[in-house]
Design brief:
With 183 residues, this protein is mainly alpha-helical. The chain has 7 helices and 5 strands; from the N terminus they run αββαβαβαβααα. Strand 3 (67-70), helix 3 (75-95) and strand 4 (101-105) form a beta-alpha-beta unit. The protein is extended.
């Protein structure tokens, strides 16, 4: 899956700019009574440039040789990858030194949407990382769950009481949480 970052930017940046311009005159009342106004395209660009500069300065000040980013495919990790890609490029321009951006997707095959999230993470890595790998954390997750829900086999250090009795005294409905914790 080879994506052309510049081609995608050329296609989608005008769409984003148009959406920001359309939102520029709107205001939203927030629950606390304050008013939120979305940034203009110029304000959003200024914030992105400032974040890029701060990240580049941090990379230089701490002498990073590379940056590793877990990529879930969500907005947060994708935005972080985009900022770090720009920052790495800025360090290359300033100092002539390459700081590789290394991405990781960590799908948990126990989740129903693991394939979708992993695909989104890979897409973000294709766009912004220099290289990336996928590590399926599903088996490790299953092993941790197995240990967590075998609380009778785990004993407290001072009282020698089974951990299950401590958990039940704190939350009598604890076993019902197994399905939620798996997610």
């Amino acid at each position: 899956m080879a994506l052309d970052r510049e081609a995608l930017k050329a296609e989608h940046d005008p769409i984003l700019k148009e959406r920001l311009e359309r939102l520029a005159g709107t205001e939203f009342a927030l629950a606390d009574g304050s008013i939120y106004r979305p940034p203009t395209a110029q304000e959003a660009e200024a914030v992105l440039n400032r974040l890029t500069e701060l990240a580049a300065d941090h990379i230089v000040a701490n002498r990073f040789k590379s940056v590793v980013v877990p990529a879930s495919g969500g907005a947060d990790s994708t935005f972080m990858l985009a900022i770090l890609r720009r920052a790495s490029d800025r360090v290359l321009e300033r100092e002539g030194r390459k700081v590789p951006i290394v991405g990781f997707t960590l799908p948990c095959t126990l989740q129903g949407d693991a394939d979708y999230l992993d695909a989104m993470g890979r897409w973000a890595c294709e766009l912004y990382a220099d290289d990336y790998a996928t590590v399926n954390v599903g088996p490790a997750h299953a092993a941790v769950l197995e240990q967590l829900f075998t609380l009778d086999d785990i004993h407290m250090q001072k009282s020698d009481a089974p951990l299950s009795s401590v958990v039940e005294s704190v939350n009598p409905n604890y076993p019902d949480r197994k399905a939620h914790l798996s997610k």
